[in-house]
Each structure stands twice: as structure tokens, then as C-alpha cells.
Write a structure and sequence with these properties.
about 425 residues; alpha+beta; 2 domains; eight-stranded antiparallel β-sheet; six-stranded mixed β-sheet; about 35% helix; DNA-binding; DNA recombination; Transposase
């Protein structure tokens, strides 16, 4: 199983980059080659990262003092960056002949990944935030490598029908469960290993970008409030239940992990049991992703404008509700929903969530309530589900100045007790 549009989909003004992922069927000899490439690229990553850290340590000094007491005295090394490390690839293959068997572009892409991770750590983004420090990779951590050119004269990867020909690896059968649309230009191919086999992700360029819906053509809009009791609630009172895929798999996962803990680490039985654990995690992740796509397509088919709340999900994941929050994966869902909306020409808008669950959607009065209280009851007479009230506030906050009709939900002049209705999703991506 694979997904036509990944959460890493990117869109630009004149084209989109979509990810098409297919399973590969390599023979045993090719599997050995793929695993060997991953291990050699891991070792080269660790060497290149150590070279960068050593150069940083030897040249860094505090502003008000030198580092003679804590740093070795020696020749100051020259600056280490992607270009200096890429120029050393020829010497690496001379000293270690095994690297001659790896396609040169794959080694360069490995260094590019390190360079991006290094810059994210040292250089803050426009919001002043930086990424984590790049880490040394343990055995098996690097399970993917990229061919940056496909189907061009000097490319290392060529896709013809259902056969993928890779330089220095050979021809591998691709299980094309769906065709790549005509007119798409394949830019890159990434070979990656998962718990159930090897896959190839093709990054395709699509120049037929649908025009975004203009504001004056918006006919329907909604606000969505995500939660843990209900996955989301729309402004017209429809809700979707939380599937809890990880929670349901916990008992099975605990049993096979206990079995894994009793085995000798590194033995064949240990590897077989570890594969069972990894397959279960992969199955849960695929269930969750499929569910996210179903919900995203249902929303995009139903509304022209979808207003959501910009939550600090990373901060919420540090609370005692972390397991439930990570199980529903709000952040991944919002990325998928925005990608699907762009592909369909629909609009999405993120707004500030502060006060949406406290303020009354009918009169605007603040109604303080604890997290355990799931019903909003205001002095104006409005009694409504807490999440529905929040979705209505999100719709009002995000649709200010837009020429759209009412939310087809509550009429604040006629307060009454309302209950949300649940939606059964039976749609395909």
C-alpha cells in the first residue's frame, strides 16, 4: 500500500511536486546490495558529521576568552562544508574501494542531507527557531538514498513501464498499483526500506496547478475544532469519532515486545521478533494516514473554505495527554488537509485558537469551564456541545469580511440545546 500524495507535498506558483510511492520486488542479490549501500552511507554520514563537529570545536571560542585551557593546540583546520566534503569523495573511494560500487550522486545526496541538517541547527529560520543537533547514526538508521535524476541521459535511475533500472544495482520490478499520470515529470527517485520491504518514492512535477478559488466564489465555509474525545467537529455540527489505532494495538504490541525482551539480542529469533514489532507500528501508521486522507477529502469535497486552529501541538504533546495527542496526529492531518485542498483548488486558513472554547458563539460572553466539562451553557440561553461552540467561533474568526452565507447551524436568536451528529466516512482518496 502506498499513497498518491504524501504529507511532504510542496506547491509553488506554477507547479506542484507530488510523491508517488510504489513497492519494489528486488531479488536476494539486489537486497544485499541495497543494504550494503545503506550501511556504507551511514558510515560516511558519521565520518562527515564528526569532521564538521571537530572543525567547529577547534575554531569556536567564547567572546570574552580564548579556549587554550580546554582545547588542544594544533593547526586550525579549514572550514568544512558540503563543497569541501564532496570534493573528498574521490579520495574516499580510493582509500575505501567499497565506495566505488555506490553511485556518486547518491553519496552527494547523503552529504546534502547532512548539510541541510547542519544549517537547520546553526542558522535560525525566519521565526528565530533552530533544529536539533545532527546525530551520529546507529546501524540501520540510514535506510534510504536518493537518485537526483530520473529518465535523463546522465541519470542513475530509469523507469520504463514497471521496470526501474538503477545504476550499479540493476533492473528491479516495480509494483505499479496505480499509473503515474501523463504529463508528470519525474524529478527524483528515493529508495527506502520499511519493515515489510523496499519501496521507491518518485517525486513528480505537475505543471497543471489548479487555480485557487477566489474569495467572491466561496459558497460554503466551516471551522473545524480538533480534539481527543472527537477527532474533529465542524461548524454545522458534524463530528468524526477518534479511531484510536494505537490504543487498540497496545495489548498486541505489549505482548510481542515482552517476547522480544526475552530473546538474545542480535540472534535470528530476535531479528524476526523485532520485525514483527516494526510491522505492527507500520500497520498502525498506515491506518492513521489512510484515515487522515479520508477525512481530508471529505472536508474538501464538502466546503470551499476550511478554517482550523493554529495549535501548539508540540507543546501539547509534552503534557499528560501526550499518548492520545500523538495517536490522533493533528499536525500530520492538517498538513495532509492543506495539500489536498491545494490540489483541489480549495482554501484553508489557520487562525488563533485563544478563547474559542471559552467565548460563547451566540453572544460572545466568556464562559469559563474546565476541560472535563464537555457542554457549553451560556446565560444567553445557548446550550451546545463544547467542540461545536469552538468550531463556530473559529468560523466567525476566520470568515470576517468574506461574502459567505451563514454556517447553516445555530441561530443565536433562538437558543436551544444542540447535539453533534457523527459522520461515517466511506470515501476513497
Amino acid at each position: 500500500m502506498s499513497y498518491i500524495v504524501s504529507h511532504a507535498t510542496k506547491w509553488y506558483y506554477d507547479y506542484m511536486l507530488l510523491t508517488y510511492q510504489y513497492k519494489l520486488n528486488p531479488n536476494p542479490k539486489q537486497v544485499v546490495i541495497l543494504e550494503t549501500w545503506g550501511e556504507l552511507l551511514r558510515r560516511h554520514w558519521n565520518y562527515a558529521l564528526g569532521q564538521r563537529l571537530d572543525g567547529l570545536k577547534r575554531t569556536r571560542s567564547r567572546i570574552d576568552r580564548c579556549s587554550l585551557l580546554s582545547e588542544p593546540i594544533g593547526e586550525i583546520p579549514s572550514k568544512v562544508d558540503y563543497y569541501t566534503q564532496a570534493s573528498d569523495l574521490k579520495q574516499t573511494s580510493y582509500l575505501y574501494p567499497d565506495y566505488k560500487n555506490i553511485y556518486a550522486d547518491c553519496q552527494q545526496q547523503n552529504l546534502m542531507r547532512l548539510d541541510k541538517a547542519w544549517k537547520r541547527w546553526l542558522v535560525p529560520d525566519k521565526n528565530g527557531k533552530r533544529g536539533g543537533k545532527p546525530r551520529f547514526k546507529k546501524q540501520g538508521d540510514i535506510s534510504s538514498f536518493t537518485f537526483p535524476r530520473v529518465n535523463s541521459p546522465k541519470a542513475g535511475a530509469h523507469l520504463t513501464g514497471n521496470i526501474l533500472k538503477l545504476s550499479k544495482i540493476g533492473e528491479i520490478e516495480v509494483i505499479l498499483h496505480r499509473p503515474i499520470p501523463d504529463g508528470f515529470e519525474i524529478k527524483q527517485a528515493t529508495i527506502l526500506s520499511k519493515a515489510d520491504g523496499w519501496y521507491c518514492s518518485f517525486y513528480a512535477k505537475d505543471k497543471t496547478v489548479p487555480d485557487a478559488l477566489s474569495v467572491d466564489k466561496i459558497k460554503s465555509a466551516t471551522g473545524i475544532d480538533v480534539g481527543l474525545e472527537k477527532f474533529l467537529t465542524t461548524a454545522d455540527g458534524q463530528s468524526i469519532e477518534v479511531p484510536q489505532y494505537y490504543r487498540k494495538a497496545q495489548s498486541t504490541l505489549a505482548r510481542i515486545q515482552r517476547h522480544l525482551a526475552r530473546l538474545t539480542k542480535g540472534s535470528k529469533n530476535y531479528q524476526k521478533q523485532a520485525s514483527k514489532v516494526a510491522r505492527l507500528h507500520l500497520h498502525v501508521a498506515r491506518q492513521r494516514k489512510e484515515f487522515h486522507y479520508h477525512v481530508a477529502h471529505w472536508l474538501v469535497n464538502s466546503y470551499d473554505l476550511i478554517i482550523f486552529e493554529n495549535l501548539n501541538i508540540r507543546g501539547l504533546a509534552r503534557t499528560r495527554l501526550a499518548k492520545s495527542i500523538l495517536d490522533v496526529a493533528w499536525s500530520a492531518f492538517l498538513e495532509i488537509m492543506q495539500a489536498v485542498a491545494v490540489k483541489r483548488g480549495k482554501l484553508t486558513l489557520g487562525v488563533d485558537p485563544r478563547g474559542t472554547s471559552i467565548n460563547c458563539s451566540g453572544c460572545g460572553e466568556r464562559v469559563e469551564k474546565t476541560l472535563a466539562k464537555r457542554e457549553h451553557s451560556c446565560s444567553c440561553g445557548l446550550v451546545i456541545d463544547r467542540d461545536w461552540n469552538s468550531a463556530l467561533n473559529l468560523l466567525k474568526r476566520g470568515s470576517v469580511g468574506l461574502p459567505i452565507p451563514g454556517c447553516r447551524g445555530l441561530d443565536s436568536s433562538q437558543p436551544m440545546k444542540q447535539q453533534v451528529s457523527f459522520v461515517n466516512l466511506r470515501c476513497s482518496r
